[in-house]
């Protein structure tokens, strides 16, 4: 079910996307509502699941995760949406995101690793999964836009 939101909700969400640590009083002032109104709306957005989490975006390259990789996977027919079959993949800590997709590939993993040997370990773990039949690995050379920059509002 899609939550019905108005222009004020959109302003709140947009500001949070730009700065999730903005103090409530400052946010209320910025969008032109009373702080209590803001807090009620935030609570509603959180309870409905529109606002799922407040998080820090980390530059993992500065922590030694120098390789950002996309791994495309083909899986045995009928298993892409079966999370029980994917539990081993979901446990691989280097997998930042895992998506079921349409088209030529069934799954796409976004992976961050420290170096080539770490990448090889991840590829081997993925290859050892009994439902994965084929993989293609692509190294991200340069990100033009990152997920934390997404704000369609």
Describe this structure as you would to a colleague:
By secondary structure, the protein is an alpha+beta fold. The protein folds into two domains: 7-48, Winged helix-like DNA-binding domain superfamily/Winged helix DNA-binding domain (Arc Repressor Mutant, subunit A, Orthogonal Bundle); 60-139, 2-Layer Sandwich (Alpha-Beta Plaits), CATH 3.30.70.920. 35% of the residues lie in helices and 20% in strands. The protein has five helices and four strands; from the N terminus they run H-H-H-E-H-E-E-H-E. It has helices at residues 7-18, 24-31, 35-48, 83-90, 116-127; strands spanning 67-75, 95-100, 107-113, 132-139. A four-stranded antiparallel beta sheet has the order 2-3-1-4, with helices on one face. Strand 2 and strand 3 (107-113) form a beta hairpin. Helix 2 crosses helix 3. The longest helix has 14 residues, at 35-48. The two termini are 20 Å apart. The mean pLDDT is 91.
- What is the average of the pLDDT values? 91
Number of strands: 4
- Highest-level CATH class of the largest domain: Alpha Beta
| Rg from alpha-carbon coordinates | 20 Å
**Percent helix range:** 25-40%
- Overall morphology: elongated
Q: Count up the domains.
A: 2
Task: Compute the number of helices.
Answer: 5
């Amino acid at each position: 079910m899609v939550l019905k939101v108005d222009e004020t909700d959109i302003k709140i969400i947009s500001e949070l996307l730009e700065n999730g640590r903005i103090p409530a009083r400052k946010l209320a002032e910025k969008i032109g509502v009373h702080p209590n109104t803001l807090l009620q709306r935030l609570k509603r957005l959180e309870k409905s699941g529109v606002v799922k989490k407040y998080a820090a975006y980390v530059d993992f390259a500065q922590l030694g995760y120098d390789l950002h990789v996309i791994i495309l996977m083909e899986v045995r027919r009928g298993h892409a949406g079966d999370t029980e079959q994917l539990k081993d993949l979901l446990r691989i800590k280097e997998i930042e995101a895992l998506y079921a997709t349409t088209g030529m590939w069934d799954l796409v993993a976004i992976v961050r690793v420290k170096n080539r040997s770490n990448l090889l370990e991840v590829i081997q773990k993925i290859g050892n999964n009994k439902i994965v039949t084929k993989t293609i690995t692509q190294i991200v050379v340069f990100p033009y836009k990152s997920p934390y920059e997404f704000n369609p509002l």
